[in-house]
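Hey, I'm writing a tutorial for new members on how sequence and structure tokens pair up, and I'd like a real worked example in the thread rather than a made-up one. If someone can provide the structure for the chain below, I'll link this post from the tutorial.
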Amino acid sequence: MNKTLLIKGGVITVIAIILLVVLASVSGTIGERQHYKSSAKASVAKSWTGAQTVFGPILVVPYTLKWDSQEWSENGKTKIVRHHKRNGTRYILPDTTKLQASIATDIRYQGIYKLPVYSGELNLSGQFSKANILEKTNVALPHEKAQLVFSQPYFSLAVSDARGINSVPILNLGKKEFEFKAGSQLTFMDKGIHAQLPLEVVNALTGVNDGVQDLPFSLKLSLRGMDRIQFFPSALDYQLSLTSPWPHPKFYGDFLPLSRTVTSEGFDAQWQVSAFASNIEKNVSACEQGNCKALLAGGFGVEFIEPVDVYLQSERSLKYGFLFIGLVFVAFFIFEILKKLPIHPVQYGLVGLAIALFYLLLMSLSEHINFMLSYLIAALACASLISFYLVYVLRHAKTAGMFAALLVLLYFTLYIIVSAEDFALLMGSLLVFIVLAVVMVATRNINWYEVGDGFKAEVTQEK
């Protein structure tokens, strides 16, 4: 194998590296556009609302412990009476909470970007049992003469972004109605709503009025947000039913739906989380002592996603860009060997640049029109340009047409790959394997030791 072949191979390799840098630059542009989209999303979230997290409802009962103790004075000569006071809070969970949420989705525009948002109607119902309230309000006394005094309790529901509350709901508790006020009054998640309750509610359930057994509740909350909605199982038995016309949900968190139905017209999902699964009672007890980290670590919900957005599809396409360029270079090289028609390295480079330009065209077009149409336009434009150029490079229109047909087939195969979600890697691996097999079969009879002499003869003949 002589120097001519080695020099040509080296030059083509350098050109391939330069094209790889060009593809990396296109990839950087895609990343930059993704960043712009994230900035647009943040801008919409600032004026609309962001992702929502819902905690509650729970019944909050503040209390105060007061007691006196006799202690020796500092000089140890006399006894004095010291007054002690300790404040605390009890978080009382509902025995059952049933939440039925209907989420309607919409699209907001920020410049050229389309961003999904939602508005939801949350119907909450459930009940607090007298036995549970008795247990939670049974506070251990630090002194035998200590006095336990309950303060005004309140019913609390927390959300992560209170701007998403469209209207102030009414709480139906027992047989009475109560108005909500701003703020959840929870130390660990202060945004939301709360309803002040008369102290008689606690007194009725702690034995003062034995006629009261359970405390049912219900309310309707209109909530808006974007991207996703998350819930925390804040009940001994927490049941959630969620429906939406969005066809591409992504369920996430510590608990997946017990049942779900996803169609092109939307989805319907149901969760049921028990206190044994969520460990909610232990987490609430820890939160009463000031450690609420575990209480906010067991969320679950749904994310409203575009399964493959235009930037992700462009990025997936770009991953096969070097393979495309390599395939064309290999095809040129084999054509040179079999047909003994020399192709200049500059011609390799121009065809490679045309292929690289396809990805930039694809991304820029897909920001304004449908991805499939963008792909079709970009593929036809680049294939037409390359086929026109190859008519003069290969000096044969039929051969140039065959190369163009092969390129169109590759573009079609690539579209199938990037459109797939679960099988993209498998299909991409099969494509690489098939390409390698075709190259090996096509070159199986070539004596590579004689290739260099052929190149030398071609160059001498041209001179």
